[in-house]
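Changelog-linked ticket: beta-D-galactofuranose example.
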Amino acid sequence: AFAALVGLSTAAVAADKLTVGFSQVGSESGWRAAETKVAKSEAEKRGVTLKISDAQQKQENQIKAIRSFIAQGVDAIFVAPVVATGWDSVLAEAKDAKIPVFLLDRDIDSKDKSLYMASVTSDQVEEGRIDGRWLVKQTNGKCNVVELQGTVGSSPAISRKKGFEEAIAGSPGVKIIRSQSGDFTRSGGKQVMESFIKAENGGKNICAVYSHNDDMAIGAIQAIKEAGLKPGKDILVLAIDGVPDFFKAMSEGEANATVELSPDMAGPALDALIAYKKDGTMPPKWIKTKSTIFFPDTAKAEYERRKSLY
Ligand code: GZL
């Protein structure tokens, strides 16, 4: 009887050892790399086995990875959906296999909310509003803005554009004069900003660049300097993510504002999964992370504080 008891408890412990398959977008930005790093340490802290697949920003690779996780019979699937559409069939396969799905840092626009247990994301429309409101105030409602959009079709690109436009709608003097995707990368942001500068009288017509993430803004800062202009002064630089290098740029007077995006999306998802596995507790559909705007005045301290995290 004793052996059976021991056997039982070992089995119970084994059942606790959860395995999660994480379909990650790629490593297009400093923020994305930090999210992956934090996901690994958060899983380790909880004794969860995390299998990460890097899709190099291709949706078909994410779909392949999700199918493979289903075949492996993982306990849950985390996915950061590179774009908002095209997920219904593969997530229906996960649902049929009774494998809970969590969306991390990006949303899908599916009508069928039963295809995922919860999404862990910031309020990406509000992120755009926060930047827009700050720019209107900072420029007394007069500014020709160029916009660096994130990955075409991704929920952050759609939502951050929407929120920013909402915030400037009441100030006709604040106008988006050019807008194009830099695909969330530093090189993309630099190339697009170079074309904006060329098209706008060497950059003299441009009052500010609004970037959907810090990495494209860091590329834009290079382009502004190479055009002989002063980023942060001749052209205001505002973005979203809160990566260390952007805080460094702010502390050096080369950037003006960023809205922090927590790189820890996996921790809250893991806690929700563990609670569900333990006693069936269902998490809220949207586990929302905080959005706080930061400025040059605290940038040096914030840079020091964040370096180790990235
Ligand atoms: C937003 C996230 C975005 C980051 C970028 O939640 O999906 O993707 O803002 C990253 O840095 O590429």
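Closing comment: Example verified and attached. The first helix runs from residue 2 to 16. Residues 9-15 have pLDDT under 50 and may be disordered.
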